[in-house]
Amino acid sequence: MAPVFILWLALAIIFAIVEAATLGLTSIWFALGALVSMTCALVGVPLWLQIVVFVLVSGGAVWFTRDLARSFNKKRQPTNADRIIGHLGQVLEEIDNARGAGAVRVDGAVWTARSVDGQMIPTGAQVTVCAIEGVKVMVAPAGQ
Asked: What is the pTM of this model?
């Protein structure tokens, strides 16, 4: 059987590869815990204590960096479509949420549209883009 420090080293490498592959703070703490436990194994600390060290170091790293990890993992990737929120558009096809119908032209592009409050909006009306949900714009009559 391989010395225990080699197993800790292998775990640290695996956790580092997972971290690199996910591009988010997901497993770096466990890589750190495995490296500290590997160091303990090299100096002759008993296996049970190495495991305790792994759990404490990994858990402590998660605890102290959890706010950083949340903000890092929740970063929203804006798209060019976000720029039309707040812009005016013109209804090309009557917007009727009940029928699932409606289209608007905003900044030269045609979008499938739905009303934010469920009211029907007639063809030709001016609307304001309030949000984007998937490939649809959510609109309200201009001036509301």
From this structure: 0.49
